[in-house]
Amino acid sequence: MEHDLPGAGGQVLLVGLGNPGPRYAANRHNVGFMVLDELARRIGGKFKAHKGGAEVLEGRLGDRRVVLAKPRSFMNLSGGPVAGTARFYKVDPGGIVVVHDELDVPYGGLRLKFGGGDNGHNGLRSLTKSLGTRDYYRVRFGVGRPPGRMDPADFVLKDFSTTEKRELDLHVDRCADAVEDLVGRGLAAAQNTYHAA
């Protein structure tokens, strides 16, 4: 089934998932924040604290009005701030795009989809609970599987390896491109471009 974001006049809420504070800034779990920071750079603005519980930035991507949001809560409590921000800006779940880390996609790979389960991701679980639906867009940034018997929860709270860091800016940039493509051309077109690579 084809899903598209609200019509050209409708506002879109772009959410990056991560944990707040410098201790977590470079963790794999924080790639959502990294991508949102790149989108903010492209828009040319700064995030400001919002009463909904997130850092927000209003702007435009192409001809689309967007609100960028980074929850100020920890990852597993992201849902409250996202739902609050969505209510404030009157954005339905079908107009929300969430950028998050994904263990089941190889490092640097991207997968875009609408709806689905949380696949063990605590941030998505919190969002689905607070929004009351799974029907929102996800841009899944691959961080790969942990080595050996490392606990996935420990893996995502570690920084990227030295080797991974060499390509990280490139992957973040490409993920930001994919978000812009999803917003501008719709899910199917963006999937055709970014799933093929």
From TrEMBL:
Native source species? Prauserella muralis
The positions flagged as active site in the entry are 29 (proton acceptor)
Site residues by UniProt (Discriminates between blocked and unblocked aminoacyl-tRNA): 19
List the signal peptide residues.
none
Question: Mind listing the GO biological process terms from this record?
Answer: protein quality control for misfolded or incompletely synthesized proteins; rescue of stalled ribosome
Q: Which controlled-vocabulary keywords does the entry list?
A: Cytoplasm, Hydrolase, RNA-binding, tRNA-binding
Indicate the family of this protein: Belongs to the PTH family.
Check the record and name the InterPro entries matching this protein.
Pept_tRNA_hydro (IPR001328), Pept_tRNA_hydro_CS (IPR018171), Pept_tRNA_hydro_sf (IPR036416)
Name the chemical reaction catalysed here: an N-acyl-L-alpha-aminoacyl-tRNA + H2O = an N-acyl-L-amino acid + a tRNA + H(+)
Which gene name belongs to this protein? pth
One Pfam match, by short name?
Pept_tRNA_hydro
Give the GO molecular function terms.
peptidyl-tRNA hydrolase activity; tRNA binding
The record's subunit annotation is: Monomer.
* HAMAP family named in the record: Pept_tRNA_hydro_bact (MF_00083)
The record ties this protein, via Gene3D superfamilies, to: Peptidyl-tRNA hydrolase
Q: Which NCBIfam families match?
A: pth (TIGR00447)
Q: What is this protein called?
A: Peptidyl-tRNA hydrolase
